[in-house]
Write a structure and sequence with these properties.
The chain is of the alpha/beta class. The chain is built from 4 helices and 4 strands, in the order E-E-H-E-H-E-H-H. Helix content is 31%, strand content 21%.
Amino acid sequence: MNGYLIAYRDPLGTISPRIKVQVKHRESPTSVHEIRQLMGLLQKDGDVGIFISTGGFTPDARSTAQSSHVHVELIDLTRFLDLWQEFYHKLTDEDKSRLPLLPVYFLAPSINA
């Protein structure tokens, strides 16, 4: 599954920042070429790129994003799930139904035993 979306603060997209998101759901890591493609779309001042890849990123892809003159945020599956857990309580019920989470509890060993 692949996807691309653009988020604006206003209906016409005239107010910065504009957020451009690329999503890749696959097992293989995202290449530097794909990161550069997203960076090429970040033309206007204040544009932010977010690349979400369940397969992670190659070392070259990470290096390119970190050294870029434009803001590109890389989110792998682990970070996506961490963010989902962190902000889950703020989501609407409709959004929660898209990726429901249930707490799982474990009995911790006694420290004073």
